[in-house]
Amino acid sequence: MAGGIVVTGGSPYWRMYPFRKLLWVSIGILGFPLLSRIVDHFPGTRVGFAGREAAGVMID
């Protein structure tokens, strides 16, 4: 065999996370797209996550 292909994926089990971390993830999932729509971009440097991103990227 001359080569190989490796495919990986992950699906974290929600019960393995502490409640506080789940709360922050939920805020991010709901809040980032909303914030991006309001200011027409995602101000990641001010929020503390990622950089300045296009609104469409964060909404997706």
Structural class per helix/strand content? mainly alpha
Beta-strand share of residues: 5-15%
Mean pLDDT: 84
Low-confidence stretches: none
Strands, count: 2
SSE string? HEHEH
Multimerization state: single chain
Count of DSSP-assigned helices: 3
Rg result = 16 Å
What does the largest sheet look like?
Answer: 2 strands, antiparallel
Distance N to C terminus: 39 Å
3D shape: flat
Instruction: Report strand order across the widest sheet.
Output: 1-2
Account of the protein in words:
The chain crosses the membrane at residues 22-39. Keywords: Membrane, Transmembrane, Transmembrane helix. Helices cover 50% and strands 10% of the residues. With 60 residues, the protein is mostly helical. It has one domain (14-59). The chain has a two-stranded antiparallel sheet with strand order 1-2. The chain is flat, with a radius of gyration of 16 Å. The termini are far apart.
SSE layout:
Layout: H1 19-39, E1 41-43, H2 44-47, E2 52-54, H3 55-59
Antiparallel strand pairs: 1-2
Write a concise synopsis of the structure shown.
By secondary structure, the chain is mainly alpha-helical. The chain is 50% helix and 10% strand.
